[in-house]
From TrEMBL:
It is found in: Peroxisome. Residues 20-135 form the Acyl-coenzyme A oxidase N-terminal domain. This is Acyl-coenzyme A oxidase. The lineage of its organism: Eukaryota, Viridiplantae, Streptophyta, Embryophyta, Tracheophyta. GO terms for molecular function: acyl-CoA oxidase activity; FAD binding; fatty acid binding.
């Protein structure tokens, strides 16, 4: 092959940018300090050979898992040696880019003890967990029930004589099934089980249970445990040991029941504390919030690959003697740029959701529980919306890269396989949207009773106006006015919510209405969540945005985000009479001109994500655009190319070929 020239094939593209890219990098990272930490951690990981990840697709399961254990141990060593802060450590984990048992230990086991344990329990368990002297997981889902948490079957029966709980799996379907880190690594779990005292069932609660010996890692008596097997895709989520777990009358001391929400006294009396019982679901609220922030990362990564490759790839036509860059096709732009805009939109809504979560946490500490329902609805709804869009977008980016997108070396197949379960874990996306719809229906039904909607539902206070206001678009330029767009999204959501509430009121039993109208309720919830994302993008632009041209780029992306949603859900907007068909047609014209505005900035807008080539893991998304020689290099690394004649030739190919010769002679 020809010697490789050190050329940046995207240099011309970069020179077209009309904004200060360094300023945009800081906006994307969420601040100067955040940018600096992220940049440093990305480089640290990229330069460390232990964190190599280009061989994941070809390792067998055992090698893959052992390799993950090695990486996790090495990461932990580096974290201690370099005295990394929590923020730095979590960035380091992000750039290592490999699902591992440590995610559940840090992301769920520690938070569940923090959120549902008493002061005493936190003092006892957290120091060991922080030092990783114990490794924990979150064992809620069972073979028979995941979404329906109240339907879990594992029992925790109090034995007052010995002051212990007996944890038991009474049926096959009560086996814990799915918890990450459970299969091989965890020594402990927070197990969700039915609390039974004196023959009475008090519902679900969390219990800290030791699973494996801290000396030799063997399962403790009465514990049957293992990995649930290979999951979708090679490499991908198979670095994680999702596990099964059965209990045969396993005894734990009474003080291992997490007692912030409910307590069991020495005599076996159950005392409900004054915090809402829904705090039992609090860890899920926390993780859903992190999943929204993560969606913008996965989406931006796929978009970065597809955008760079679309600028490198040429097919047909002629531009100054060259074939056309595929990024210049309007169809490519209309598929790609809304995804680029969504990446930025999800970034900003993720920042806002983090703030909302911190706010609700502080209020809970001060015993103000009033914003909990809204925090639940926002985290559930936005988790659902952003993960569904991101999963579909990764697949769209694969298609945007044509045939080469299907190669593992494009980075997209693995990204897709790792990402799609986000639509299911931490709550199936449809089940979560139904929670949002329930919250909206409740909010609307309480409007007459003087209960004031709060936070993201405040717009429902202007219900009368929103139900009849015409859309304020006369000319195409009106579509660029943020207040016009926000009001339109409010009107669509309000009208769909009220229409559904009216249909529900016709049922004598509300549960029957919820069953019958569930598909419409999901559409209502989606409309409400899209309104939140649009509004938070608009609010972000009302802040001080430093850097030449940065605000203008973000304004264009915000309009693309909103108008492409309008185009996609035109049926909603037309059927609720929120807009006319003439206005819809104007919106389409504006979108085309916005795509032209973004086009020269596209490469710089994805460079602003500041992803290293190591993190992207994609030949197509390389920073220098040097795609073709690298595709060859990657192909030649495949084990199939290790020998010129394949293994199996003599046994299976040659005889067939010879037989064909004989047949031919006949
Ligand atoms: C190799 C490298 C290693 C590097 C290592 C380096 C070291 C590391 C250092 C640092 C690293 C940090 C790393 C951190 C990484 C973090 C990553 C985190 C990864 C996460 C991975 C995820 C894995 C997946 C986990 C799971 O899936 S856990 C299981 C999740 N399960 C669910 O989500 C179940 C879904 N079901 C439900 O939530 C509920 O059952 C329901 C659907 C809501 C129904 O509940 P039910 O009570 O039956 O229903 P209702 O009657 O509808 O509701 C009653 C009432 O409650 C309200 N409600 C419901 N939910 C909530 C809630 N969550 N909060 C508040 N309120 C709630 C609901 O609105 C109702 O209210 P009303 O009565 O008022 O209407
Ligand atoms: C990769 C991965 C990692 C996981 N990690 C963990 C973990 O660490 N710990 C843990 O405890 N769990 C974990 N889980 C389990 C996960 O939380 C559950 O799978 C998830 O909550 C969905 O529940 P389910 O499997 O019961 O789905 P089901 O509820 O059985 O869903 C099946 C179908 O039924 C539909 N459906 C269900 N209920 C309704 C309804 N009321 N109305 C309309 N449609 C409905 C759903 O939309 C879906 O289409 C993990 C799962 C995965 C895939």
């Amino acid at each position: 092959m020809e010697a490789e020239a050190a050329v940046d094939y995207l240099v011309d593209e970069r020179s077209k940018a009309q904004f200060d890219i360094d300023a945009m990098k800081i906006i994307w990272a969420g601040g100067k300090h955040e940018f600096e930490v992220s940049d440093r951690m990305a480089r640290l990981v990229a330069s460390d050979p232990v964190f190599r990840k280009d061989n994941r697709a070809i390792l067998d399961r055992k090698e893959l898992f052992k390799n993950t254990l090695r990486k996790a141990a090495h990461a932990w060593k580096r974290i201690i040696e370099l005295r990394l802060s929590e923020q730095e450590a979590s960035k380091l984990r992000f750039f290592v880019d490999e699902p591992a048992y440590t995610d559940l230990h840090w992301g769920m086991f520690i938070p569940v003890i923090k959120g549902q344990g008493t002061e005493e329990q936190r003092k006892k368990w957290l120091p060991m967990a922080y030092r990783m002297q114990i490794i924990g997981c979150y064992a809620q889902t069972e073979l028979g029930h995941g979404s329906n948490v109240q339907g879990l079957e594992t029992t925790a029966t109090f034995d007052p004589e010995l002051d212990e709980f007996v944890i038991h799996s009474p049926t096959l379907t009560s086996s814990k099934w799915w918890p990450g880190g459970l299969g091989r690594a965890s020594t402990h779990a927070v197990v969700f089980a039915r609390l039974i005292t004196d023959g009475k069932d008090h519902g679900i609660n969390g219990f800290i249970v030791q699973l494996r010996s801290l000396d030799d890692h063997l399962p403790l008596p009465g514990i049957i445990i293992g990995d649930i097997g290979m999951k979708f895709g090679n490499g991908a989520y198979n670095t994680m040991d999702n596990g099964f777990l059965r209990f045969d009358h396993v005894r734990i001391p009474r003080d291992q029941m997490l007692m912030r929400v409910k307590q069991v006294t020495r005599e076996g009396k159950v005392v409900q504390s004054d915090v809402p019982w829904q705090l039992l679901y609090g860890t899920m609220v926390y993780v859903r919030q992190t999943i929204v922030a993560d969606a913008s990362c996965a989406l931006s990564r796929a978009v970065c690959i597809a955008t760079r490759y679309s600028a490198v790839r040429r097919q047909f036509g002629s531009q100054n003697g060259h074939e056309t860059q595929v990024i210049d096709y309007r169809t490519q732009q209309s598929r790609l740029f809304p995804l680029l805009a969504s990446a930025y939109a999800f970034r900003f809504v993720g920042e806002w959701l983090k703030w909302l979560y911190m706010d609700v946490t502080q209020r809970l500490q001060a015993r103000d529980f009033s914003t909990l329902p809204e925090a639940h609805a926002c985290t559930a709804g936005l988790k659902s919306l952003t993960t569904s869009v991101t999963a579909d977008a990764i697949e769209e980016c694969r298609k945007l890269c044509g045939g080469h997108g299907y190669l593992c070396s494009s980075g997209l197949p693995e990204l897709f396989a790792v990402y799609v379960p986000a639509c299911t874990y931490e709550g199936d996306n449809i089940v979560l949207l139904l929670q949002v719809a329930r919250f909206l229906m409740k909010t609307v039904s309480q409007l007459g009773s003087g209960e004031r909607p709060v936070g993201t539902t405040t717009y429902l206070l202007r219900l009368e106006h929103l139900l009849q206001c015409p859309c304020d678009v006369q000319g195409a330029e009106d579509w660029l006015k943020p207040d016009v767009v926000v009001q339109l999204f409010e009107a669509r959501s309000a009208r769909m919510t009220v229409a559904c509430a009216k249909s529900l009121s016709k049922f004598s039993k509300p549960e029957d209405g919820f069953m019958d109208l569930s598909a419409d309720l999901v559409s209502v919830a989606t409309a409400h969540c899209q309104l939140i994302v649009v509004s938070k993008f608009v609010e972000k632009l009302q802040q001080d945005i430093p850097g030449e041209g940065v605000k203008q780029q973000l304004e264009a992306l915000c309009s693309i985000y909103a108008l492409s949603l309008l185009k996609k859900h035109l049926g909603d907007f037309l059927s609720t009479s929120c807009i006319t068909s003439k206005q819809a047609s104007l919106a389409n014209d504006v979108l085309r001109s916005l795509y032209s505005q973004v086009r020269p900035n596209a490469i710089a807008l994805v460079d602003a994500f500041n992803y290293t080539d190591h993190f992207l893991g994609s030949v197509l998304g390389r920073y220098d655009g040097n795609v073709y020689p690298k595709l060859y290099e990657e192909a030649l690394k495949d084990p199939l190319n290790e020998s010129v004649v394949p293994d199996g030739y003599h046994e299976y190919l040659q005889p067939v070929l010879k037989q064909r010769l004989r047949t031919a002679r006949l």
